[in-house]
Predict the structure.
Amino acid sequence: MEQQQDEGSNSNNSGMFVKVMTDEQMEVLRKQIAIYATICEQLVDLHKSLTSHHDLAGVRLGNLYSDPLVTSGGHKFSGRQRWTPTPVQLQILERLFEQGNGTPSKQKIKEITSELSQHGQISETNVYNWFQNRRARSKRKQQVSSTPNNGESEVETEVESPKPQQNSVSTADDNMCFQNPNVSSGISSVDQRAKKVEPVFPSDASSKP
Amino acid sequence: MEQQQDEGSNSNNSGMFVKVMTDEQMEVLRKQIAIYATICEQLVDLHKSLTSHHDLAGVRLGNLYSDPLVTSGGHKFSGRQRWTPTPVQLQILERLFEQGNGTPSKQKIKEITSELSQHGQISETNVYNWFQNRRARSKRKQQVSSTPNNGESEVETEVESPKPQQNSVSTADDNMCFQNPNVSSGISSVDQRAKKVEPVFPSDASSKP
DNA sequence: GTATTATGAATGAAGG
DNA sequence: CCTTCATTCATAATAC
């Protein structure tokens, strides 16, 4: 909406069109702008940091790991790579999976881990996860392959799963909460301050681009 | 904050201290504020959406699956079946877990559920499961961390590790990660606009909190 | 380089 | 409680 000179009766002024503000108003206004600027800056920055690599085709998106001990420096992406089995380990694991058909007991896990640690860095969790995933994968594969497939165009079975939650929309000021020290404080303050900003101009600032 | 009718009798101020702006400046200013407001609103909203998932003591955070406003369309939302705590809920839960020394009685569960339902859909079962899982997880973590190795001097010299897998041996219980779905585009635009905003007041509007 | 696939990891829920 | 399953996310690997 185009802002008219609703507030300005100035129109009838002589030549100059001017708005007059008190010093106080001016101060408030300036503060608001500063606050907004700060907020936007922080938020944008945050998002930038969060999205290290731009989105893909719009399907999935990347992510970024924030360093826990950073606290000061910019964004250093200290490695946090997932375990990757060495070929040797993989071989052993595969073999165990075949023979020990689907029963990776806890005790076994320890043994296996010990065994595999001789061939590379590994932890029990890795082994555990590996078996879990392996099994799930196998099962899934079978399911898919065994799907009778009913030559018919498979209809959208899931008609309309209503969203279970997400009702947090209407809540008063349900703000986002981050646990991360860096982020959390930043965001919190931002949010708080955002709330405090009061519009000087009653004109609609709610024109979504 | 109340706005007075400054605009009205802008005429020459008598003894008041006033600042004068041209109409053009006023316009610019208002636009800037509007833009800032919009940006902030969007960003905050965005963050809310992004944090619909959860994470905390764990390692990662969230996800988000739907909502493409930019992506043309024909996008059906995949329904979510299992409960996912909202950030607020998670925060509360974590707190309770810490303080409520590991004994979520049935009665407590009800209370907590009531409390949490204020921040999103939730059921007692969810709370119960959450506590159970949380506990189990903690315990597991401890176990793992308390098992540094097989007592054997770690064979760090993994000769056969063709892959640069510098697996983080640490139990890595603190790492924050945000995921950004299709937000990037939005953010980008926002960012662009933010840059377009030019300061009207050359004065110190840069009071960083 | 980008998009796709494979797979390690996290977690809510169910079973015992 | 503890274990197991199913589902999903994130990322290394790989194809394009």
